[in-house]
Amino acid sequence: MESAPRKIIHIDMDAFFASVEQRDDPSLRGKPLAVGHGARRGVVAAASYEARRFGVRSAMPSTTALRKCPQLVFTPPRFEVYKAVSRQIHEIFADYTDLIEPLSLDEAYLDVTADKAGIGRATETARQIRARILQQTGLTASAGVSYNKFLAKMASDQNKPNGQFLVAPGQGQAFVATLPIGRFYGVGEVTERKMKALGIETGADLHRQPLEVLLQHFGNAAGWFHGIARGIDERPVKPDRERKSSGSETTFETDLSDTARIEAEIAALAGKVFAWCDKAQAFGRTVTVKIKYADFEQVTRRRSLPAIIGDADTLRHLAQALVVSVYPLRAGVRLLGVTVSNFEARPAAEQAALPV
């Protein structure tokens, strides 16, 4: 016998950062709001729904956002507050399931197949979770309910904000067929352009593509695209989902051209990254440096070691050597970033030497 379908809920907070700011400062309510810095080199971290109506989006340069919405109000981010609210929300999740897979501070997958709260229906479970989030935090959430993660995530966007949507067993392929390809989880801007060039505009168009054609154009991702076009996603909800990297980056108010200043900034970023690694006891073998020039062209340099990067000096030296490898600079530098990835556990002997 086939096993019963899973019951998966995807919870997505509505304009989370901006909603927290509007909750805490009544003067911001109803106004187009951007969380971020309105300076010339600022970037929008999040936008309220009032701002989104003008086309303001996260990751948009502040200058572009202000051109689209001259009355836009900026407020600096308060990440410690957002993390505290996120912890409140996860405490609510835990009353309904032990299988919680966070995707970010403001969204998560929940597997409620076991029905820990004894509610009986996943749609009612989602409704109760959303009601408790509103009651305890004053914030709204949207939910998608389905039998796999992909469909649940797509469904949570259907009735935003403050709504929910069900894709029941047997309805997945028909639901996906109607979606524009740009809405698909896992289809970024580059892939979307490539698909549209091939005449793939919707889920139905994707479904008509033979696997061989998808393999020719999309390589390893072909199997994923072939499956989701049919509403198929076998990935389980993983409550122990491990973080795969840690990084820090900064955008400068004026372009940097002095190499000594650039190397000092890289050292500072490497210090921040290693401080997180040390606190989390998560150490990686690969360091990546990102450089974005004044004309927005971006380059990366990466190096992997045979063993983990276990001290701050090693990370700093590696990161600085990588940035030096791009000299001479082709233009001024507007952004620098350092990331550590390929996490591994410390060797047992090294762990034993750590202070307790």
From TrEMBL:
Active site feature: E107
Catalysed conversion reaction: DNA(n) + a 2'-deoxyribonucleoside 5'-triphosphate = DNA(n+1) + diphosphate
Site positions per UniProt: Substrate discrimination: F17
GO biological process, one term: error-prone translesion synthesis
Family assignment from sequence similarity: Belongs to the DNA polymerase type-Y family.
Reported function: Poorly processive, error-prone DNA polymerase involved in untargeted mutagenesis. Copies undamaged DNA at stalled replication forks, which arise in vivo from mismatched or misaligned primer ends. These misaligned primers can be extended by PolIV. Exhibits no 3'-5' exonuclease (proofreading) activity. May be involved in translesional synthesis, in conjunction with the beta clamp from PolIII.
Protein name: DNA polymerase IV
